[in-house]
Design brief:
Acyl-CoA thioesterase, Thiol Ester Dehydrase, Chain A, alpha+beta, 140 residues
Length: 140
């Protein structure tokens, strides 16, 4: 399985009144990891959208284990956890600088037509992406 790593430095604006990263910001970090994963496969998410294809989130799972604070660095590991040709599920683990597992999660996405939101099959509309996703799943 192919895994990418993305680093983020915690910005002050991401923290809440308790001085820790607000829980909603981890979803943004997942998005950073996912787009970096796609880029590492050689594709451009913005280009896909320009071509009239969107990949909305249909489900999120997230588990918080340890908080992050302003100024700390986070490492987001992202991989393709499951892929059916219609649905892609990405896995995430966010580590702190001490290599402790702080946040884990998964996001589920489907491809849809930008105008109609009708579901699309990746193999048909993005055959190169489909092949890369199959390789990413089998890449040990």
């Amino acid at each position: 399985m192919r895994v990418t790593q993305t680093e983020v430095e915690v910005r002050y604006a991401e923290t809440d009144q308790m001085g820790v990263v607000h829980h909603a910001n981890y979803l943004v970090w997942f998005e950073l990891g996912r787009t970096q994963f796609i880029k590492a496969l050689g594709f451009d998410y913005a280009r896909m959208e320009e071509d009239g294809i969107l990949a909305p989130v249909t489900d999120f799972e997230i588990s918080y284990k340890k908080p992050f604070r302003y100024g700390e660095k986070a490492r987001i590991e992202t991989w393709l956890d499951e892929y059916s040709g219609l649905r892609a599920i990405y896995g995430y683990v966010i580590y702190n600088e001490r290599d402790e597992r702080c946040v884990t999660g998964r996001s589920t996405h489907v491809l849809v037509d930008k105008e109609t939101f009708k579901p699309l099959i990746m193999k048909k509309v993005l055959p190169n992406w489909h092949k890369a996703y199959m390789n990413a799943l089998n890449n040990d």
